[in-house]
Specification:
Two copies of one chain form a homodimer.
Chain A lengths: L2 H18 L1 H9 L5 H21 L8 H19 L1 H5 L6 H12 L15 H29 L4 H7 L12 H25 L4 H12 L17 H14 L3 H8 L10 H24 L4 H16 L14 H13 L12 H19 L8 E2 L2 E2 L2 H27 L4 H12 L20 H15 L3 H4 L4 H4 L2
Antiparallel strand pairs in A: 1-2
Chain lengths: ~475, ~475
């Protein structure tokens, strides 16, 4: 491990993070709130960042693969630590664990909250809370489109294999260039959404906060009852559309914006993603019309909202789906695991992996009927390389393994089975609201301290595509 | 499909089945009960069997692979149909679905019951109910040790790969010979258990019924409160030991009985199986001592019983584990999925597959640390062939896929999430008792009719190693 190099990088990260704290400071000024928590946090973060940068600045050296994993993991852990300062210093949360939980939930774009009362908080603090989503979301896009392919993990190699596109060395020769392009797209789309939300009646503060929550598939709201509190069909549909956009691969958005209008529908994962969403919405509309709503438009609107919110792993709500039929509740839990697309801000197992696992399962059945035939697994028109298949299989099993272990640990704290199971599902998949005592009308405040740490771990592990974090737990990682 | 050939085979199967109905008839005579239901069922089964055999007897022809799958699946479906006759004709069950559910639960060695009151039933009927377990258990051993390796499915090829042993063409040149050897072992071990249970105070009828339930990892009891009603530490420990024996690979028992005493501990799957059991028992003993029992011996005895019962997929109970801490309940659900060993009468995903999936997951992590190293997956000292790995990966994903779809279907019938989830887990893994409204103190009587059919399907699919049944659902199976 090149510790000096890592600490230097973390210094740069903290300097950037501190600069972003100036935005909520602006809102705190504007709304004439106490600026101490934010300004103190800004100074601490800036000074620590500068010190790290100055002391550990090292000659330009190549990051090795192991350092890459450590950097990403430490980056998120450190950001959440300093990001928790405004919450903690302002005494808005009962303890540092709670502040850290909220900040990690923000940066991992989970949106699980320990707040029982949101609207009492100062606007500056709420703005920072939502901004952590937006920063984390951007971080994940850069991570998954620019870094992961270089590390050889995840579904993105397949994206590269299927069609040459804007991934790492493909669109632009360098990570920095790729990152810049993605930033521009992210800001552009966010701007459009914020504008539309203001058209729908939100003020600038609310529009920006909810844009951050949508584009990062995060889910923090400034309202106690989330998007439901606006009770506006226009706002609901705007957010539905932008959640679906945020859950799609940002490389596709780049291509679309550069004039390749067909790129969405030449992409296998995108077609699968849209197909799952459409089929789910149809099923939900029927069930909700029969059991909950007395007209088809309400059933469609609330069905579509909850389906898209959970599937893209956003976690905004317009209805308390825990009062819906068991069937729709369980269906939503399944959608939690499918999740968004690779290269999006969404979490979960990801559509591309689920698609390939389904295809593989079917292929095994075909092999039984034709035992001597050689049937290759294809994605679009290209065969899927063996090492990528192995990586996906390993991912699926490890994901389930960690999911089950973490749920088991939650039951050890005395939580009931549904709450244990779904709180882990809602954090490892980076959704936010779950079922049981962490349902859409409740929050994570009552979870015991150890349980909060377990869920913080789940958020991180789910967000960083599992391997990135877990690899640090095997002894070989630490050997020279 | 060679339909004539299949019908001929089914005829032979039914003739054998009818002959086994003579045993419960003996008990019905002995206890001076109404013999009509059993004798009528015997005659119907025998006559249908003879007719099929005589009409569809065909010149000796080779079974093709597809016919093999169809024969096994149809064999179980047909046995359950005729096996349900005594239940239905005697009006002991409210409907034919219920009778069929009970018979399928018997032949698949599941042990899920729709009976609310067991002890009122005539002894002859109860004997037949337990005998279906024993026959199904034997059927599964022959299926998994003699047929599956020839079809190229399942974990048994690995067993062959690791150490040359008594599988299909290895111990004996022909399936028929292998089957005979396995029958002898099965009868021998059953005899020992029945003898010990009689020593523990059971009469011949009870000892045989509970031996059938143990050796087949079935779980039907003749008592309303299962093994708990005897309240005997001796009986509990005898059953614990024989459940563990029944959940181990019968090829190992064969080797042991032929003087190769070390064979158990040269076998990777067996070591893994025992390790999981021992670790689970230790954890359960601690938790139960802290929360439920006031002495360590009771904690150990009831912890060990429930762990071994669920892990081997038997389903006998000595305690209502639904009143235990959530942690132990959830732990038992995890053990349900691990299940017994390949080549045993146990169900579940099976230890060998779980072991390989764990190893594969770890290997993927190692590959991240050493991206250029070639790390082969080994079982004992031999590398695992690629096609077997693929088969196992496909199995795991398809298993989870069917499990989730079936649970979702159960919620559509209005059942709560825990009941839906665990009723499918308890049937697809061939356990019996679950949690929620199908807990150890309850039964499956209240499940809606469609739900019963879904669970019947789950029992069959879980029992026949998934592929055998599912392959018949893909269109290519039916093409010439």
């Amino acid at each position: 491990m090149q510790l000096r190099l890592l600490l230097g990088f973390l210094g740069i990260l903290l300097i950037f993070l501190s600069l972003f704290m100036l935005f909520p400071l602006f809102f705190a000024f504007y709304y004439k709130e106490d600026i101490t928590p934010l300004s103190t946090s800004f100074l601490i973060t800036l000074v620590v960042g500068l010190l790290l940068f100055l002391f550990f600045r090292s000659p330009k050296r190549e990051l090795r693969i192991r350092d890459g994993f450590a950097l990403v993991t430490l980056g998120w852990i450190t950001s959440a630590f300093f990001g928790a300062l405004p919450f903690y210093l302002g005494h808005f949360f009962p303890s540092f664990v709670d502040s850290y939980f909220e900040a990690m939930s923000g940066f991992t774009t989970t949106g699980a909250s320990v707040l029982t009362e949101i609207e009492h908080l100062p606007k500056g603090i709420l703005f920072w809370r939502s901004l952590t989503h937006w920063l984390g979301g951007m971080g994940i896009i850069v991570f998954s489109l620019a870094l992961l392919p270089l590390l050889g993990v995840g579904g993105m190699q397949l994206f590269k294999a299927e069609s040459p596109g804007p991934v790492a060395d493909k669109i632009k020769p360098r990570i920095a260039e790729t990152a810049k392009t993605l930033w521009k797209i992210y800001i552009l789309i966010s701007g459009v959404e914020a504008f539309l939300l203001m058209l729908g009646g939100m003020n600038l503060f609310e529009a920006l906060c909810h844009t951050f929550g949508t584009m990062a598939t995060g889910g923090f709201s400034t309202k106690n009852t989330s998007i439901g509190s606006y009770n506006s069909a226009f706002i609901d549909w705007v957010i539905i559309i932008f959640m679906v956009v945020a859950g799609a691969n940002f490389s596709l958005h780049y291509r679309f914006l550069t004039g390749k209008f067909k790129s969405y529908f030449n992409n296998t994962e995108f077609k699968f993603y849209i197909a799952v969403i459409v089929v789910s919405i149809v099923i939900f509309t029927i069930i909700l019309r029969l059991h909950i709503y007395d007209n088809i438009f309400s059933a469609l609107r609330h069905g579509a909202f909850q389906v898209c919110s959970i599937m893209t792993t956003t976690g905004y709500t317009t209805a308390n789906f825990e009062k819906w039929p068991y069937f729709t509740q369980f269906f939503l839990v399944i959608l939690m695991f499918i999740g968004g697309s690779a290269g999006s801000t969404g979490g979960g197992i990801k559509c591309i992996r689920i698609y390939i696992l389904l295809k593989h399962g079917y292929r095994e059945l075909l092999k039984l009927v034709h035992p001597k035939a050689v049937i290759s697994l294809k994605m679009g028109k290209k065969a899927i390389p063996y090492d990528i298949l192995q990586s996906i299989w390993g991912f699926f099993f490890l994901f389930m393994f960690i999911f089950v272990l973490a749920s088991l640990a939650m039951t050890l704290l005395g939580l009931d089975i549904i709450t244990s199971f779904v709180s882990v599902a809602a954090t490892i998949n980076n959704i936010g609201p779950g079922l049981g005592t962490v349902g859409p009308a409740e929050n994570y405040a009552h979870i015991p301290v150890i349980g909060k740490w377990i869920l913080i771990f789940c958020m991180l592990v789910g967000r960083l595509e599992l391997y990135t974090v877990i690899v640090m737990f095997i002894p070989e990682f630490w050997k020279k």
